[in-house]
Amino acid sequence: VRSRIIGCGSYLPANVVTNDDLAKRVDTSDEWIVARTGIRQRHIAAEGETTSDLAYEAAIKAMEHAGVTADDIDLIIVATATPDNTFPATATKVQNRLGVTGFAFDVQAVCSGFVYGLTTADMYIRNGQAKTALVIGAETFSRILDWEDRRTCVLFGDGAGAVVVQAVEGQGTIEDQGILASRLHSDGSKYELLYVDGGPSATQTVGHLRMEGKEVFRHAVTNLAGVIREVLADTGIDASEIDWLVPHQANRRILDSTAKKFGISPDKVVVTVDRHANTSAASIPLALAEAVHDGRIQRGDIVILEAMGGGFTWGASLVRW
Ligand code: ACO
């Protein structure tokens, strides 16, 4: 048994905040933000709108696209670093709203969360414990930003994306639709470069995101290239055969530099960072849903999903769409 992605969907909160809007709150400018990051705007959740609300909306769309109902789903994984509550898992809230039986849990790998979640679902499907899984990346990073800190508050946004992953009989070949390879990495020694300075056990507060941007940038470029090389080597697929790069959307310069390293032309990179900013675990499924629904990604395409985030954590999945 192996697994394939049979549908995807996404959801963005209605409220759009432009760079000019932010310039009214902190000492920044549209020019600075666009030049350094490529970000022009971000969506911010309304008061009372939580991560599970965004996750639920994205899940409904992914299930519709996949043509499955709640009865078909036997596993829900929500990748998030901004759960509604310390516990229960946001995934169980989504499970309840969808009316799904089976099991549900969250994974926490910050911006790499979607790749971790997809890899985890793939494992449950391969060992027969699940047949149809919902993997959702959902975040409300606006709730953990220090809105006085111009170095970080301009970079992030809220949103959710989801995919339905389903078992297919047989081992398949690299020509067959499916998740062909995944690799995950973590390095806890880089904790202080990107973290939240709160939490239930440490401070009994929610805390705010803290980041050494330049250092994160440097590690991201190196680590992402390394993990993409690994999934290519695992499958014997050459970089020239990649049809679409669907990266975690942190920063336009990281995307461009990663694509350049592998000789991937800019029009083969799915970019949403200009409109969504960095939505952490939600960014890959948001970008994927956009490129699938507008017809760019076609059946049979080789698609690479990759991400790097706090921890550090990083990973990649190579998918035959
Ligand atoms: N507006 C105006 N000026 C700013 C802003 C802002 N929003 N933010 C910082 N500056 C200023 C700084 O204060 C500094 O001024 P100084 O020289 O007077 O001290 C100057 O701009 C340069 O600051 P740097 O931090 O050196 O700027 P840099 O070119 O590194 O860009 C950035 C910062 C955009 C954060 C970049 O380092 C980056 O993108 N890093 C990657 C981080 C990232 O994407 N993290 C996401 C999570 S992890 C992941 O998803 C990969």
Look at the structure and name the CATH superfamily of the largest domain.
Thiolase/Chalcone synthase
Shape, per Cα inertia axes? globular
> How many strand elements?
13
Low-confidence stretches: none
Q: What is the CATH first-level class name of the largest domain?
A: Alpha Beta
Query: According to CATH, what is the topology of the largest domain?
Result: Peroxisomal Thiolase, Chain A, domain 1
CATH architecture of the largest domain: 3-Layer(aba) Sandwich
Q: Give a short account of the largest sheet.
A: 5 strands, mixed
The H-and-E topology, N to C, reads as EEHHEHEHEHEHEEEEHEHHHEE
Q: Mean pLDDT, nearest integer?
A: 97
How are the strands of the largest sheet arranged? 1-7-6-4-5
Query: How much of the residues is beta strand, in percent?
Result: 25-35%
Rounded to an integer, what's the Rg over CA atoms?
A: 18 Å
Structural class: alpha/beta
- Total count of helical runs of at least 4 residues: 10
Approximate helicity band: 25-40%
Provide the number of structural domains. Answer: 2
The CA-CA distance between the termini, in Å, is: 17 Å
* Small molecules in complex: acetyl coenzyme *A
Main location: cytoplasm
Family: Belongs to the thiolase-like superfamily. FabH family.
Region (ACP-binding): 249-253
Catalytic activity: malonyl-[ACP] + acetyl-CoA + H(+) = 3-oxobutanoyl-[ACP] + CO2 + CoA
Output the keywords.
321 residues, Peroxisomal Thiolase, Chain A, domain 1, four-stranded mixed sheet, 10 helices, 13 strands, globular, binds acetyl coenzyme *A
